[in-house]
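Question:
Write out your own:
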Amino acid sequence: MRNYSQESEPTRLIGPWLEPLLAEMIEFRRDLHAHPELSFQEYRTTTKIYDRLVDAGLKPRRLEGTGVIVDVGDGPIATALRGDIDALPIIEETGLPYASRNHGVTHGCGHDIHTAAMMGIALVLAAMHEDAPLGATIRIIFQPAEETMPGGALSCIEQGALEGVPRIMALHCDPRVEVGKIGTRIGPITSASDTIRIELSGRGGHTSRPHLTEDLVFALAQIAINVPAVLSRRVDVRSGVSMVWGQISAGSAPNAIPGSGAMAGTMRCLDRDAWHAAGELLDDVVQQVAAPYGVDVHLEHIRGVPPVVNSEHETALIEAAARAELGDNAVVLAPQSMGGEDFAWFMQDIPGALMRLGTHVPGGEEYDLHRGDYIVDERALAHGIKVLGAAALRAIRDV
């Protein structure tokens, strides 16, 4: 009897097992796309995932609220795989026949592909295990609420998702990478992402007499300009600390200095240690910049997610799987992203890797994530199943 854990080079194993399931997985994905659900509201999605896994003879576990965990195989866990299942509060503009039926909600980040890929992997590995023992267990996490901060990953961890797990891997759609290719990178591939809110209050007055006020608008401007500048000199520049403001509001008349105002933005960073260091510095820096103007400062620092830092070994597993399943030229270098990804929480105590799944049609229209018109080349679904499924088989050899 064949034992996959003893394969010295388990190449091209996924494709033949996927072929009879692929049409169903495409329909599975389209159904998810037509019925998107927001973070922690993925009740229909959770039921659909759970029921299909039960139909396959597996024993999934519903998480509290939404989300599912399922183990495939037996013996020690070789790796966990994660797929996020939530959608975005965006109106869909694709015009697809299976476009969102939930107005104002759409899978504009490709999580329907992620979910269907994890389902395909679960069904393929289950069929392979029934034919011959895998020699280990693959845990698949259907995670809710990636699109919120600090993210549904923390809820999964609290409910035991990582118990006995030595490593974890995931994929994310990337409309900048051609379909048929995947993007990888060792080290930081996404950024830490925090939300910063600042409220100022002080004595207002007439703009002709700013010396009798605590010129709050001027103080806001100084914070907006100087806080990012000071952080760039107090934190290692190689860490990529980026402070960018998205909101500033104060006042209602051109000749009146207001008594209150507010601003908000994000702080991003590619290094875990620098992320913590910048957070510890932030309040002092803001207070010092604002001090000369006499305003009262209230700062709210909302921790988001740490950076995703891909480990060398797990990245190598994914790259080897991609070359075996998709061809020698299937792997490209993924650029670092300053976007946040709560997959990072899974990787605080165990190694892991996040790969970019190409969804761009060569020569076709260019899309971006988090847009209502984002269209995925559905061939990417099979590629995601093959690569991450094959990477899981390679992980079994480490058990």
About this structure: The chain has nine helices and 16 strands. The first strand starts at residue 61 and ends at 62. The chain has a mean pLDDT of 95.
